[in-house]
Specification:
alpha/beta; five-stranded mixed beta sheet; 5 strands
């Protein structure tokens, strides 16, 4: 029998998005996907999610959360919560300012996976797939999963896509609530990203307690959503 080789990064973009899941499920194992939301924002936390889909569970809208409408994200998130084991991790603005966005994101991802593995009846994953973030688990776990990280993970694994969706819904819900407290900043609209309206609100009213000081100190240079996305890709890929 011909031995199967793991596809390259370019080949992965052309393989089925259930490639990693099917390998696990067909062998009776479990796969965990991890992703984050809010890394490029000027305000608010980074929120991560770790998701283990139930075997052979799939949904047509398990795609990158950024390309889904809010309504479709909410509907898909409800399906994910019913068809997976999941947990969240968070790194707030203070932690981001203290240790930097890279380390804070790693910390939040580790919290998500440890929160998930500490829940009763959660199956132990044999592999963890992560979007664009190397991660090292601490020793002492009953079973140490293999970890694989790659860029554009939401397009390569439905488990990462599922984590992306529920993390975004969680964070958007938080920013929607904070909008009722900080009514002059438009958090309900831009969710903390550096849009033109957000920058104008910062200039007019100054930063709130939610703003990342290390992100807004160079505000005069300008930033926008597309700039943030490019910065994220260059930082982690």
């Amino acid at each position: 029998m011909e031995k199967k080789t793991k596809p390259s990064s370019k080949e992965l973009l052309q393989t089925k998005r259930t490639y990693f899941e099917e390998i696990a499920w067909n062998s009776g194992a479990y796969l965990c996907g991890i992703d984050e939301v809010g890394r490029g924002c000027l305000a608010g936390p980074v929120i991560t999610a770790a998701v283990i889909l139930k075997p052979f569970a799939n949904h047509a809208l398990l795609v990158d959360s950024k390309i889904l409408s809010e309504k479709k994200r909410d509907l898909t998130a409800s399906w994910i919560l019913e068809n997976s084991w999941y947990a969240y991790g968070i790194a707030d603005h203070h932690e981001i300012d203290t240790v930097g966005i890279y380390q804070a994101t790693q910390n939040a991802m580790l919290r998500a996976i440890y929160n998930l593995l500490s829940q009763p009846n959660t199956p132990q994953p044999h592999k963890i797939v992560i979007d664009a973030m190397p991660l090292q688990l601490s020793a002492g776990l009953p079973h140490t999963p293999e970890i694989e990280s790659f860029c554009y993970g939401e397009s390569r694994s439905i488990s990462i896509a599922a984590a992306s969706i529920i993390a975004k819904v969680k964070r958007d819900t938080l920013l929607h609530r904070l909008n009722s407290i900080y009514t002059s900043y438009g958090f309900d609209d831009h969710k903390g990203y550096g849009t033109k309206n957000h920058q104008q609100a910062l200039i007019a009213h100054g930063p709130t307690l939610l703003h990342r000081k290390t992100f807004i100190k160079n505000l005069t240079k300008g930033t926008d959503d597309e700039h943030d996305k490019k910065d994220q890709i260059s930082l982690f890929c």
